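Worked example 2:
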Amino acid sequence: MRIAILLDDAYGGRGGIAQFNRDFIEACCTDRARHEVVLFQRIGAQESPAPLPAGARYGFHPPKTFRYGRNVSIRYVLLSVFSVLREGRFDLIVCGHLYLLPLAAPLAAATGAKLATVMHGVEAWGPSRHRLADMIARRVRNIISVSGHTYAWFLGWSGNRNSRPFFIPNTVDVDRFRAPLDTAALRSRLGLEGRRIILTLGRLSSQERYKGYDEILEVLPRVRQAHPSVVYVVGGDGRTTRGIGPGPFSGLSARGRQASLLPDGRPFPPCRTR
């Protein structure tokens, strides 16, 4: 099967969507059916990209550096249209984000390919400012969703009862992310002996309040009244990376500390409320 995948970022990208895309691509390439996968990536690398798996290649090379903007989008649309039509017939076009549907749907029709779109989370929970993408989403047949929760929210506003969902949850690399053999030593190093821990890992951004950090901070005083040993540990990186700062972390005490993760998943001393 020849598969074209239109996506924002994957190899060289950061964050959960980029990781999902890499896992999805590698699953297609390692399937026994030996699919041919052609990638059309919009955003350039934020870090040194890993090599593509055998069976995958770029339809055109993405930008060498991480860039957003109108010029990047225009370049992407023109190159995608030219490259997909030059490639010829595809069996399946996977739209890696709902906002790319106005590009993916016409290309699927032009090449005679089936169309499937991926839903990751908040972008599918309600109508967006992208009216054309919303209109196409109300009619798209094949949907790849990371959860039944996201798909249910999508059905609620789109009314697309003719859609056929395929659920592919986010995955974890158990070779990189696993509990340490000596948890007592880790607790001691982080000053968490005898404490009950609430742990959040994710991108820390004042523009992404839906992650849930602020809700936990809001109820934490009441939780600690009932369970005084509770400590809230936050790990990640992003635009809000100060112990006391704007957005969801404005409620941290003056004794809060920076949260971060090493590339191999080992935690630095965490941000925490006392």
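Confidence is low (pLDDT under 50) at residues 241-274. The radius of gyration is 21 Å.
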